[in-house]
Amino acid sequence: MTQTLHIHAENPQLRLIHQAVNVLRDGGVIIYPTDSAYALGCSLGNKQALQRIIRIRQIDSRHNFTLVCRDLSEIALYARVDNTAYRLLKAHTPEAYTFILRATSEVPRLMLHPKRKTIGIRVPKHPVVSALLGELDAPILSSTLILPGEEDPPHDIDAIRDELGHAVDLIIDSGFCGLEATTVVDLVDGTPKILRQGKADARPFLAE
């Protein structure tokens, strides 16, 4: 039976964070809370775990996967950030945005959009995510937990457990964290383009 860890949303228990990170390091797939909704996550570069997420989500190769990062300096390792993009990222992280940028060679090819060679980048504003990233000392490969045939993420952790308990290795229960996906902003060509309106307000980007 899939393990469930009840981690406090505001004051994460470090002992439990350590357990969750061990699951990631061992190649596991986890469900964890973010500042917009629950998400699926695994360690960067783990092909088998990534394929499991693809099967759970039933997504194709054109899907932009996301690297959940700690801060701007970590983003620069995995995405090409020019001065314009840097200013926008600095002004709008951490927050419920996903930014589409050209990937660097540090990103495994399997994660990339096949034609554009892009990757999603995100810095969530959630204590549990911050604690996970600090302990892992690396990004989490992530995808919003949206079930096949659905438009919005589920928010009831019991329903999530019933639906996906067999498909993942760990569920982090931190209570309700939202039911909207992130707002997706494409920064590849320098001018912000809103690809998906989600939880975060798109208007400040359009005003830039």
What are the key terms here?
single chain, 30% helix, globular, DHBP synthase, 7 helices, 22% strand, alpha/beta, ten-stranded mixed β-sheet, 208 residues
Distance linking N and C termini: 49 Å
Number of domains: 1
Provide the gyration radius in Å. Answer: 16 Å
By secondary-structure content and strand pairing, the structural class works out as alpha/beta
The percentage helix is 25-40%
Low-pLDDT residue intervals, each spanning 5 or more residues: none
How would you write the strand order of the largest sheet? 1-8-2-3-7-4-6-5-9-10
Strand content: 15-25%
Largest sheet: 10 strands, mixed
CATH topology: DHBP synthase
CATH class: Alpha Beta
Order of helices and strands: EHEEHEHHEEHEHEEEH
CATH architecture: Alpha-Beta Complex
Considering the protein shown, what is the CATH homologous superfamily?
DHBP synthase
Number of strand segments:
10
Task: Give an account of the 3D structure.
By secondary structure, the chain is an alpha/beta fold. It has a single domain (3-207), classed as DHBP synthase, CATH 3.90.870. 30% of the residues lie in helices and 22% in strands. It has seven helices and ten strands. It has helices spanning 14-25, 47-57, 72-78, 83-92, 127-136, 157-164, 203-207, and strands spanning 3-6, 30-33, 38-43, 66-68, 97-102, 118-122, 140-144, 170-173, 183-186, 193-196. It has a ten-stranded mixed beta sheet, with helices on both faces. Helix 1 crosses helix 5 (127-136). It is globular and about 45 Å long. The model has no long low-confidence stretch (mean pLDDT 91).
